[in-house]
């Protein structure tokens, strides 16, 4: 949710630090780097073909985002996700995103709704193609368009602090039924906005988080049944 969701006139190439940050974050979110993986500067730098400095900077940022734990002995590991942590994260994200959504709805224009429709279509198309990274980014942008419409940049800053961790949880826990929960929720929310029913749209958007929390609570972190 770092951008407004609309196309840019042009895109500057990322700095080396930003490129490394995006790559490592993507590997964590998608599970390429599983929870508990130890990250060593030199090894990551060699694998990505960069110097150690941007790797250290990227790891420091990811630690601030909660994706990497730094132990007292400076060992860096991909953060473990417990059920308690997962549910707390969903609760925090729900409060922030739903507040921003409610505040932004009165300011939505036809252009906003058009961009939300585009993001929703990208979300669905990428899910069908199996591109989870692109799908989660499009899904995040769907909400960001509304949150930015609130004009509250401070809120957006706080949303950005937890969004990568939330996307990691979603990507790691989601089966077809979970994705459908978000697809149908977004679709019905947008239809209510297009029908001029903003209060109902906010309520439907809030329900997505309620339903998602309930599903995560029942499907994650349970040990296998012993025979």
Structure characterization notes:
It comes from Blastococcus deserti. By secondary structure, this protein is mainly alpha-helical. It has helices at residues 16-29, 41-48, 52-64, 83-104, 110-129, 132-149, 153-173, 176-194, 198-219, and strands spanning 38-39, 68-70, 76-78. A three-stranded antiparallel β-sheet has the order 1-3-2. Helix 1 (16-29) packs across helix 3 (52-64), helix 5 (110-129) packs antiparallel against helix 6 (132-149) and helix 6 runs antiparallel to helix 7. The radius of gyration is 18 Å and the shape is elongated.
Mean of the pLDDT scores?
83
CATH superfamily of the largest domain: GntR ligand-binding domain-like
Number of strands: 3
Give the overall shape: elongated
How far the N terminus sits from the C terminus, by CA atoms, comes to 44 Å
- pLDDT under 50 segments (min length 5)? 1-11, 222-227
Q: Helices and strands: which structural class?
A: mainly alpha
Question: How is the biggest beta sheet arranged?
Answer: 3 strands, antiparallel
Architecture of the largest domain, CATH level 2? Up-down Bundle
Cα-atom radius of gyration? 18 Å
CATH class of the largest domain: Mainly Alpha
Tell me the series of helices and strands, N- to C-terminal: HEHHEEHHHHHH
- Count helical runs: 9
User: Beta-sheet strand percentage?
Assistant: under 5%
Number of domains: 2
Percent helix: 55-70%
The spatial strand order of the largest sheet comes to 1-3-2
Q: Provide the CATH topology of the largest domain.
A: Four Helix Bundle (Hemerythrin (Met), subunit A)
């Amino acid at each position: 949710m770092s951008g407004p969701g609309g196309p840019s006139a042009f895109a500057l190439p990322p700095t080396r630090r930003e490129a490394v940050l995006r790559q490592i974050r993507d590997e964590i979110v998608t599970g390429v780097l599983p929870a508990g993986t130890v990250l060593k500067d030199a090894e990551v730098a060699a694998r990505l073909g960069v110097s150690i400095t941007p790797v250290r900077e990227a790891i420091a940022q990811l630690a601030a985002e909660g994706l990497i734990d730094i132990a007292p002995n400076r060992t860096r590991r991909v953060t473990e996700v417990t059920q308690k942590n997962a549910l707390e994260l969903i609760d925090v994200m729900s409060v922030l995103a739903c507040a921003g959504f409610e505040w932004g709805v009165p300011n939505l224009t036809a252009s906003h709704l058009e961009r939300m429709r585009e993001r929703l279509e990208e979300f669905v198309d990428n899910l069908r193609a199996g591109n989870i990274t692109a799908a989660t980014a499009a899904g995040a942008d769907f909400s960001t368009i509304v949150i930015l419409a609130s004009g509250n940049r401070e809120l957006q800053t706080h949303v950005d602090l937890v969004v990568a961790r939330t996307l990691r949880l979603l990507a790691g826990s989601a089966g077809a039924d979970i994705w459908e929960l978000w697809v149908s929720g977004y679709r019905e929310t947008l239809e209510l906005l297009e029908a001029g029913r903003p209060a109902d749209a906010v309520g439907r958007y809030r329900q997505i988080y309620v339903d998602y929390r309930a599903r995560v609570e029942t499907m994650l972190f349970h040990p296998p049944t012993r025979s």
